[in-house]
Amino acid sequence: MAHNFDVVIIGGGILGTSISFFLSCLNKSKKIAVIEQAHNVAFHTSGRNTGKVHAPYLYNPEKKKLFAKAAFHGYEMWEEYATLRNLPFKKDGVIEVALDQKGIKILEKYLKWGKQNGLEDKDIKLMSNTELKKIEPEIKCESALYVYKDGSADYSIFTDSVMKDSEVSGTKFILDTRVTKIKKKMVSGKLR
């Protein structure tokens, strides 16, 4: 079975499916395909992960600027997409704890990075063990970093929804198909 596509994405996880959607929206004249070896998108890792949508506090703003920016905008993007498609999205936050002075220094670094990466005071807070006990009495630590702008999603449901949106934009999903070989060839003097 022969197909001609301008762009072929191998892998129908959350990333491959999302890329297909964005590309199909940007250029409707391009023929885009996603090839997935399983019988459905997000069948492997994307459908089995924790579904956390992290704030950019773990990324060094100088060395991981692109990752930090993606995490910052990704949270808002998934939250908005969940609202538009009526998908489950829980704003649950995350708590990092320190058991000693060395751990506190690490939390202080994460707080600084989070703010440099765009988080505001309402999004992230360094707490004493006394402050944390008021909201999480079972956690024993010296200090904690509470990141309020952290969420959870079901990436299996999200990927399926993004796939449907991508198909509406013209993307072809080829499921139950394994890529075993990729050949490069010259077409009109260009390597493809």
Automatic annotation (TrEMBL):
* The keyword Oxidoreductase appears for this protein: yes
Q: Which UniProt keywords apply?
A: FAD, Flavoprotein, Membrane, Oxidoreductase, Transmembrane, Transmembrane helix
May I ask which residue range the UniProt record assigns to the signal sequence? none
This protein's source sits in the domain of life called Archaea
Q: Where is coiled-coil annotated?
A: none
Domain named FAD dependent oxidoreductase is located at: 6-185
Alphabetical list of Pfam families matching this protein: DAO
* Residue spans crossing the bilayer: 6-26
Q: Name one GO molecular function term.
A: (S)-2-hydroxyglutarate dehydrogenase activity
Which cofactors, if any, are listed as required? FAD
Family that this chain belongs to: Belongs to the L2HGDH family.
Protein's name in the database: FAD dependent oxidoreductase
Q: Which organism is it from?
A: Candidatus Nitrosopumilus salarius BD31
